[in-house]
């Protein structure tokens, strides 16, 4: 059974030019104990998906989905109170851009204490609670690799380096022992040794505590190593999803191929300073989305049919949405 | 052949400021030495707070060194002489978004360095601006645009154009690719490599992304705690790292890129 199952999620946002589909029929599913990657560039709607799952979107935006369930319970028809409780108890979110996501007027320690749920404290006298909380927080701070916990807890978010902030954010997400961690670019801008440390920690938690992780990033180098499944997004459309290894070896969608090519680390045969293959143009803004397949204007293989939105096609256990896929010979 | 840029015993000591983690010791950059040939790319890698950005600042003259000298083409750069330096060494900043003045059109933005540093008349300047914009893959009409009308990748191109417009010999870039998306990042990497091949400028850049460092740099400087701990050819450093810290970096990178 799926832990999280989202089918045909469409999110419409009101702009000056009327309603725009910021997410267009996105499918995500996550089994218990699985690490799934959601890959996409900025503006592809990754963060909107996170906010839709935890229910942190403005009410006037239109959310429609064929199915959006958490352990079989429908998230969309749930009362707000029940949904909040569920989100608090069972999910944790690592927000993108950690230094901005913290409250600048409270110390990191205060904010960490807030994220420890009451039920995790032993039944002691009320004056022992603070100590219990702190012990728990310190344990997690050490886990994520912060040695100097006292200084860190007394600091305000702007006083510590960005990567320390990111680690504190991770600690605060993990301290409530969630079943699902939604990590929105947890290693952004991190130096590589720190990055490896964080990725190891997440992998270990996944193995020992059966933590499911929805890992959102555009850093294929980080994702490629830990995730089992991958979903590639472009401008709010799912372009391809399937097993990580398959997607990396034989991408079907031109966009997946372009993303893989953009990471020179994956290509051993590339001579130094050779031009990297890249898509021309840039990511369209929400106000100027092309019709049909949204990659159309940038796609090297685009033809006349691409003005119609391609419907997702299944191939073995992966799906892709493209009229003219690459590597078709694997059928 | 003498080298394009020669840095001798450059050192710097930051005035002590009571920030959180550096309350007792102020930052100190130990004397560093390196040379750069024309048409060569050098990458500086290292931890946060290792002094990478300080080196960049010292090179472009945004900070005053305590000792040492920077020699470009046999000519010593005077520490306070910004006018002499900004013709030869130019900088590209990490966030093109915040380094472009939102109140100016790109034409006016690119006009400024020309006005301040050259004797060209208005007509000539306009021609140079249009040429430079075309050179970085934009159109001449973009001179009438404002920064907010451009996408992230285009802004980075403008930042490169601003660095190129005075025909510098060295370009220093502080994390030029960090804020860009993968597909746009490849475009920028291609642009810089191509410009370097065409114009033969020396290029010094700071990056966390070892994949790109390995791809475009000829030489690498590894820094830690204000010291250069290892320097050498990209090939050598990636295959036979000597210092423990470099080993850690390279192994971490390899463990990710393997499989």
From TrEMBL, chain A:
PANTHER family assigned: OLIGOPEPTIDE TRANSPORT ATP-BINDING PROTEIN APPD, PUTRESCINE EXPORT SYSTEM ATP-BINDING PROTEIN SAPD
Q: Which GO terms describe its biological process?
A: peptide transport
Phosphoprotein is among the record's keywords: no
| Record-level GO cellular component terms | plasma membrane
Select a single GO molecular function from the record's annotations and give it: ATP hydrolysis activity
The main place the protein resides is membrane
- Membrane topology reported for the UniProt record: Peripheral membrane protein
Q: Provide the ABC transporter domain boundaries.
A: 4-260
Cellular localization per UniProt? Cell inner membrane
Source organism per entry reads Neptunicella marina
User: Which positions are tagged coiled coil?
Assistant: none
Query: What InterPro entries does this protein map onto?
Result: AAA+_ATPase (IPR003593), ABC_Ni/Peptide_Import (IPR050388), ABC_transporter-like_ATP-bd (IPR003439), Oligopep_ABC_C (IPR013563), P-loop_NTPase (IPR027417)
Query: What protein is this chain from?
Result: ATP-binding cassette domain-containing protein
From TrEMBL, chain B:
Keyword Nucleotide-binding found: yes
The UniProt entry, under SUPFAM superfamilies, shows:
P-loop containing nucleoside triphosphate hydrolases
Q: Is Amino-acid biosynthesis one of the keywords? A: no
Give GO MF terms, alphabetically.
ATP binding; ATP hydrolysis activity
List, for all copies, the residue spans of the domain called ABC transporter: 5-250
Q: Look up the record and give one Gene Ontology term from the biological process aspect.
A: transmembrane transport
Q: Which UniProt keywords apply?
A: ATP-binding, Nucleotide-binding, Transport
Provide the family line.
Answer: Belongs to the ABC transporter superfamily.
Q: What is this protein called?
A: ATP-binding cassette domain-containing protein
């Amino acid at each position: 059974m799926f832990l999280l199952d989202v089918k045909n999620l469409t999110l419409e946002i009101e702009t000056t030019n009327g309603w725009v589909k910021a997410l267009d029929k996105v499918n995500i599913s996550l089994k218990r104990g699985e690490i799934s990657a959601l890959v996409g560039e900025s503006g592809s709607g990754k963060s909107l998906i996170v906010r839709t799952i935890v229910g942190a979107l403005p009410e006037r935006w239109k959310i429609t989905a064929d199915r959006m369930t958490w352990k079989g319970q429908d998230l969309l028809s749930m009362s707000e109170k029940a949904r909040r409780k569920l989100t608090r108890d069972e999910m944790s979110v690592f927000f993108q851009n950690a230094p901005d996501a913290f409250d600048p007027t409270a110390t990191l320690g205060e904010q960490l204490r807030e994220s420890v749920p009451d039920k995790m404290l032993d039944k002691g006298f009320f004056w022992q609670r603070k100590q219990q909380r702190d012990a728990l927080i310190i344990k997690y701070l050490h886990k994520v690799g912060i040695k100097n916990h006292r200084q860190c807890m007394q600091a305000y978010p702007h006083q510590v380096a960005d990567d320390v902030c990111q680690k504190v954010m991770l600690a605060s997400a993990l301290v409530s022992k969630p079943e699902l961690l939604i990590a929105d670019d947890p290693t952004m801008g991190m130096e590589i040794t720190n990055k490896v440390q964080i990725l190891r920690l997440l992998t270990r938690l996944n193995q020992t505590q059966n933590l499911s992780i929805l890992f959102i990033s555009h850093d294929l180098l980080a994702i490629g190593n830990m995730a089992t499944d991958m979903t590639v997004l472009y401008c709010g459309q799912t372009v391809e999803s399937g097993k990580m290894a398959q997607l990396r070896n034989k991408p079907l969608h031109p966009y997946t191929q372009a993303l893989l090519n953009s990471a020179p680390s994956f290509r051993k045969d590339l001579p130094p300073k050779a031009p990297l293959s890249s898509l021309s143009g840039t990511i369209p803004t929400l106000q100027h989305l092309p019709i049909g397949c949204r990659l159309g204007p940038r796609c090297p293989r685009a033809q006349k049919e691409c003005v119609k939105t391609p419907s997702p096609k299944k191939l073995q256990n992966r799906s892709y949405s493209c009229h003219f896929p690459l590597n078709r010979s694997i059928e | 052949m003498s080298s394009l840029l020669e840095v001798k015993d450059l050192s710097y000591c930051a005035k002590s400021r009571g920030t959180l983690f550096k309350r007792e010791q102020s930052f100190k950059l130990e004397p560093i030495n390196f040379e750069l040939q024309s048409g060569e790319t050098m990458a500086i890698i290292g931890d946060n707070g290792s002094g990478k950005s300080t080196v960049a600042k010292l090179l472009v003259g945004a900070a005053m060194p305590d000792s040492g000298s920077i020699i470009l083409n046999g000519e010593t750069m005077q520490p306070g002489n910004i006018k002499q330096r900004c013709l030869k060494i130019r900088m590209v900043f990490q966030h093109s978004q915040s380094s472009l003045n939102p109140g100016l059109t790109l034409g006016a933005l690119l006009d400024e360095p020309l006005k301040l540093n050259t004797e060209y008349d208005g007509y000539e300047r306009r021609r140079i601006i249009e040429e430079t914009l075309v050179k970085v893959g934009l159109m001449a009409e973009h001179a009438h645009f404002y920064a907010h009308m451009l996408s992230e990748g285009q802004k980075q191109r403008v930042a490169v154009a601003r660095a190129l417009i005075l025909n510098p010999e060295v370009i220093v870039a502080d994390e030029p690719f960090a804020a860009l998306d993968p597909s746009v990042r490849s475009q920028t990497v291609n642009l810089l490599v191509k410009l370097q091949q065409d114009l033969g400028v020396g290029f010094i850049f700071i990056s966390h992304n070892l994949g790109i460092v390995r791809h475009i740099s000829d030489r690498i400087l590894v820094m830690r705690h204000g010291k250069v701990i290892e320097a050498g050819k990209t090939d050598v450093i990636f295959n036979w790292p000597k210092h423990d810290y470099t080993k850690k970096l390279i192994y971490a990178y390899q463990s990710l890129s393997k499989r």
